[in-house]
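Methods, example record. To illustrate the input and output format used throughout this study, we show the complete record for Tryptophan 2,3-dioxygenase family protein. The sequence lines were provided to the predictor; the line carrying structure tokens was produced by it.
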Amino acid sequence: MNECPVTNEVANQIPPTAGESEYASYMRTDMLLSLQRPDDELLHRDERLFQCVHQSTELWLKQAVFEIEHAITLIHDARPMAAAQILGRATDCIDLITGQLKLLSKMSSFDFGALRPALGKGSGLESPGWSSLRRAAPRLHAAFLAQCGASRSDLQEIFRSGHDQPLYVLAEALIDLDGKVSVWRLEHLFVAVRTIGTGGIGTKGMPVQTLANMLNHRLFPELWEARAALAGAYA
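The corresponding predicted structure is encoded as:
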């Protein structure tokens, strides 16, 4: 019988320090909760909210990329159904960070202006989480297309094949992930417009209009086009 993976994990667990619970030790809560500005250094109380939303976003993006990397491995191992299930986790991670944007939308423009100097020239364009996801997406796409080639099926054949076909389920999982990223972009644009206006300039000097231009970007454009072509809506 295989040894339970938890056994080694527990054996290697860092023992709690005096007065610290095992939960706090394992979750590194002392370190985690020290990553926000101290109360007496906040330029505005909403700076805490701003940091928490963005820091947790990076955590969920890290997890999303972790799941995507595993999905790529599963696809290479010819396990499309398992890969689709794992991609569902990555999609849920994107859902979570999209929901968090509602918290930022409740911040007033005046209050954002008060905390904005703390950001300097920092920008979400520098997000390591989004950068990692953008790097992983082409490899996910390539792995999927390789499986299509191995099965000698083109994309339209796959989208015609039906809901019980593994490659169809996987293709839909890729589109679900891509779609949720697009929804995040849209919600992020709404927050930016609500906060600094349609003609506003972000902290990195990027006009808000640039965010609007990204709404038509797709991670997997071939899949969207092949799927849509089957609707017969084009002249």
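Annotations derived from this record:
The chain has a mean pLDDT of 89.
The radius of gyration is 22 Å.
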